[in-house]
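for ur thesis appendix - Sphingomyelin phosphodiesterase. copy paste whatever u need, i formatted it the way the template wanted (i think)
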Amino acid sequence: MIWQIVSQLLLFIIIGHTVIDARAIQEDTVGQIVDGITNENEEMFATVLNYRHRFEHSNNIKALRWMFQQHINAEEVYCEICHILLPILRILIDVNQTERIENVTLEICNEFGLVLDVCSGAVYEYKDAVLQVIYLTHFSNKALCSLAFNCDRQTDYPALNWTVAIPDKKPAPQPPKPPSPDSPKLKVLQLADIHVDFEYKPGSEADCLEPLCCRKGPPLPGHPGAGFWGTSLHCDLPYWTAQAILEYASKTEEIDFIYYTGDTPPHNVWNQSRADQLYSITTINNLLATTFPKKMLYSAVGNHEAAPCNLFPTPIIKSDNISWLYQALADSWINTLGLPNDTRESILRGGFYTTLVRPGLRLISLNTNYYASDNYWLYANSTDPLNQLEWLIQWLQYAEDNGEKVHIIAHHPPRTCFAAFGWNFNRIVNRFENTISGQFYGHTHRDEFNMFYDENDPQRPVSMAYIAPSLTTESFLNPGYRIYTMDGDYPSSSYWVLDHRTVIMNLTATNLYNRTILQDEYNVRDAYQLENLFPVDWDNFIKRLESDIDGSLMSTVYTYYTKSHTDGSQCNHACRRALICDFKTARDDDPHVCDSVPPFA
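the 3d part is after this line
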């Protein structure tokens, strides 16, 4: 994801306010920092000089420069440099001289040959939040560096191992059963990660140095230009392509209602304002309402809706708030998309809500951005922000007591969140396995699923989650959407997914013939030879993949994982093994999830 590239660059630059040049350590750069701190505090001055000595004798500085040149994500090098430099940053915060960081950082952007607009924009967007987090966090320097750059397991840190209370007296498990063939069915459209780029320019440079391309400048000789309908490189979707795909779905699909799991703005995360995000949200929600005028649309908030991207401040953060976004979402989701007004209070509180979709079917839309590791505010305090999981448990208990089934939608799949959230959420799903009949996420842009297993009997599957393919092409993807066939609206309905079909735009053909060409990519029960789509069926499917990891079925899975942009020959044994490991768990930091997956080709 583009954000990962920008965030790693930014966090290193700000934590390091770096002191590196082409030769190793630039003494005058260190001097700019050291000399700025007066001798009035001799102890602090001596501390800075001590760290300067460490800079000048660290072999990891040279390694870091080589890493940048080779484009290698060497996390150990990041962590070592962070361990050396973070104390200096804390000192600058203590003496209120953080303004020096920005100037030094911009010099480093030039020194490394980084795209200055991106580098300076990222610094401007995120520096205040990062500095505030460093000031507020209770983590030591080593712990903060290790967590920020994934050098240690999150479960090694007690502050991140929080738990929520879950009701006891779990009912006996009642695994779903197939409905009668003539029972009513529902058709549900899931849209994920639209990411419309309003600055997309056909013919512009599609293979650029910035994280997001297809926006400006002619292509270099021998380099591709942006296609009119879109480009499967580091480019988001033109507005007219999104409009055409949505109109196709409206005209050709039978749809009862729609789930949209968030992420509307483009990926230029280094250069976005609140006004930009609100324009994207308002424009696309108006397009959805116009294109599907008689359909209810239920949304979740994505990480890209925030400005800066990913940063959702928790209530303990007094220097920033995100009420501007929740006010806009409440107005748009209620007034434009038709949510009932009784959802407003919880949307304004934290961007989550619950409502009845059908008699007996309750929707719960979570804001999982409060648990995502890219939300740096969580390093100040990550314990169930806004008590959202407590709120979720209360509504699941209400649904259980009143005989309702529940669908959960959110942007981040639990596997991409902090480990504590994933493990708590897994406990919740275990407790309410009879009530939760569907989970629907986005964020990864790929076609995936995640399994949930019994905590006491890890061989027994209890639930699974669908991660839907994105509408955007970013990166190296065709645009796509998903249609679910669900057990329908009748008194004893399970509301489980019975089948699903993925539709993609063949972007190569669409650009070649200059007309939109959409096609059914696959029907899951036919393509994977599944009897049903219940947890036990998906568990058996994983076992089939494990038994023939290098076979044709896994090749097919990888092809659909990329929305038919790439075939299975591009995924070797290690790639296939990693993908199966991801399918097998909804928890981050799950140490034994890969034990049963063949490790060698």
